[in-house]
C-alpha cells in the first residue's frame, strides 16, 4: 500500500507577535510545497527518509527520546500503525526552505498526517488537521495551530486566539517576493523578547496593539477589493510597528528597504530576528523587485497564494 499527500508553506501577512496578545493575524498559504509518500512495509520498523536526514527506529519508542526534526513523522507513523501489524516507510520531498518562518514543519505535519492516515482509511481534512496539530505539538508545544490550519485549507485566513480561524473567501491576485536573510532565528526567544518589551512599555505596547487591530480590520476590506496599492501601504505600516517591538535588525532593515524601493510594500514575516521578509508585487513590478534582490546577492523567490491547501493522491 502506498499513499501520497502534499501541503503548501505559509506566510504571516499581518499581525505576528500582536496575535500572541489577542490581536487578529492574517496568514496565507503559498505555492511552495512539501510532498510526503508513505508506504506499508513488512518489517516491524518506522523508516523516514528526507533531504534533511533519515530516521529508522522500531515502533513504540517514547516520543521524548527521539531527538530529531523528523520526530512528528515518527509520532504519526507510530500512532497510526497501532493494531495494524505493519511497518511504515516515509519519504519527504520539500521545496520549502527550512526553519525560516515559512511553515515547513507545519506543512510536514499536514502532509505526513494525510499520507500516513490514508494508508489505512479515508480521512477527512478535519481529522487530518487534528492529527497534524498533535504531531506539531511534539516539536512546538504551544503552537496555536494557525500554521497547520492554513496549510490544510489553503488560501487566506484570519486567526485570533479567542475566536480561532476564519477563512477569507476573496482571492486577491498578487505575487509575493520572499527574501531569506539566512539568519537562523528562534521563535521562542524572540517571542520572549517582545514580552519583555511589553512589560517595560505597557502603555506604548497597548497603543501599538490598538493600531495593529485597526490595521488588520482595514486589510480585510482591502483584500476584498484587491486594492494592492493600499495593501502595500498597510504592509509598510505593519513593519513600522514590528520595528518598535525590536524584532528587526540591520540586515532585515536593508532587505526591507530593497523590497520597498520597487514593490508596493515589504515587511518581516513571522517571528523576525532573522528568517524571511516579503515584498508585495503584481505583474507590473515583480521582475524589478526580484532583480533588485538578486543584484544585491540575496536569495529570493516569488510565490502566489495557494488556494488548494492539502492535496492527496
Ligand atoms: O516564526 P513563525 O513564522 O513560526 O511565526 C511566529 C509567529 C509569532 O506571532 C511571532 C508567534 C506566535 O506564536 O504566533
TrEMBL record:
InterPro entries: GHMP_kinase_C_dom, GHMP_kinase_C_sf, GHMP_kinase_N_dom, GHMP_knse_ATP-bd_CS, Mev_gal_kin, Mevalonate_kinase_arc, Ribosomal_Su5_D2-typ_SF, Ribsml_uS5_D2-typ_fold_subgr. Its cofactor is Mg(2+). Keywords: ATP-binding, Cytoplasm, Isoprene biosynthesis, Kinase, Lipid biosynthesis, Lipid metabolism, Magnesium, Nucleotide-binding, Transferase. Pathway: Isoprenoid biosynthesis; isopentenyl diphosphate biosynthesis via mevalonate pathway; isopentenyl diphosphate from (R)-mevalonate: step 1/3. Its EC number is 2.7.1.36. Residues 78-155 form the GHMP kinase N-terminal domain. It comes from the Archaea. One of its GO terms (cellular component) is cytosol. It catalyses: (R)-mevalonate + ATP = (R)-5-phosphomevalonate + ADP + H(+). HAMAP family: Mevalonate_kinase. Belongs to the GHMP kinase family. Mevalonate kinase subfamily. Catalyzes the phosphorylation of (R)-mevalonate (MVA) to (R)-mevalonate 5-phosphate (MVAP). Functions in the mevalonate (MVA) pathway leading to isopentenyl diphosphate (IPP), a key precursor for the biosynthesis of isoprenoid compounds such as archaeal membrane lipids. Homodimer. This is Mevalonate kinase. It comes from Candidatus Nitrosopumilus sediminis.
Amino acid at each position: 500500500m502506498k499513499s501520497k499527500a502534499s501541503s503548501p508553506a505559509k506566510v504571516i501577512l499581518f499581525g505576528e507577535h500582536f496575535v500572541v496578545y489577542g490581536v487578529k493575524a492574517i496568514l496565507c498559504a503559498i505555492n511552495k510545497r512539501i510532498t510526503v509518500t508513505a508506504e506499508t512495509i513488512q518489517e516491524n520498523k518506522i523508516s523516514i527518509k528526507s533531504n534533511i536526514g533519515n530516521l529508522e527506529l522500531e515502533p513504540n519508542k517514547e516520543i521524548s527520546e527521539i531527538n530529531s526534526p523528523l520526530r512528528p513523522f515518527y509520532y504519526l507513523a507510530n500512532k497510526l500503525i497501532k493494531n495494524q501489524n505493519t511497518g511504515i516507510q516515509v519519504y519527504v520531498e520539500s521545496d520549502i526552505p527550512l526553519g525560516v518562518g515559512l511553515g515547513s514543519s507545519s506543512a510536514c505535519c499536514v502532509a505526513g498526517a494525510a499520507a500516513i492516515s490514508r494508508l489505512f482509511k479515508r480521512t477527512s481534512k478535519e481529522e487530518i488537521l487534528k492529527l497534524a496539530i498533535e504531531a506539531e505539538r511534539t516539536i512546538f508545544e504551544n503552537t496555536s495551530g494557525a500554521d497547520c490550519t492554513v496549510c490544510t485549507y489553503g488560501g487566506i485566513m484570519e486567526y485570533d486566539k479567542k475566536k480561532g480561524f476564519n477563512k477569507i473567501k476573496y482571492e486577491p491576485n498578487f505575487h509575493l517576493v520572499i527574501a531569506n536573510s539566512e539568519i537562523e532565528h528562534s521563535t521562542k526567544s524572540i517571542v520572549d523578547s517582545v514580552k519583555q518589551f511589553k512589560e517595560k512599555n505597557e502603555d506604548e505596547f497597548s497603543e501599538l496593539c490598538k493600531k495593529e487591530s485597526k490595521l488588520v480590520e482595514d486589510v480585510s476590506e482591502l483584500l476584498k477589493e484587491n486594492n494592492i496599492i493600499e495593501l502595500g501601504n498597510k504592509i509598510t505600516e505593519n513593519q513600522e510597528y514590528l520595528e518598535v517591538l525590536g524584532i528587526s535588525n540591520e540586515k532585515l532593515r536593508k532587505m526591507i528597504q530593497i523590497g520597498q524601493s520597487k514593490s508596493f510594500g515589504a515587511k518581516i514575516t513571522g517571528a523576525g530576528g532573522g528568517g524571511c521578509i516579503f515584498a508585495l508585487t503584481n505583474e507590473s513590478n515583480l521582475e524589478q523587485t526580484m532583480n533588485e534582490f538578486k543584484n544585491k546577492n540575496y536569495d529570493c523567490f516569488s510565490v502566489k497564494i495557494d488556494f488548494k491547501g492539502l492535496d492527496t493522491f
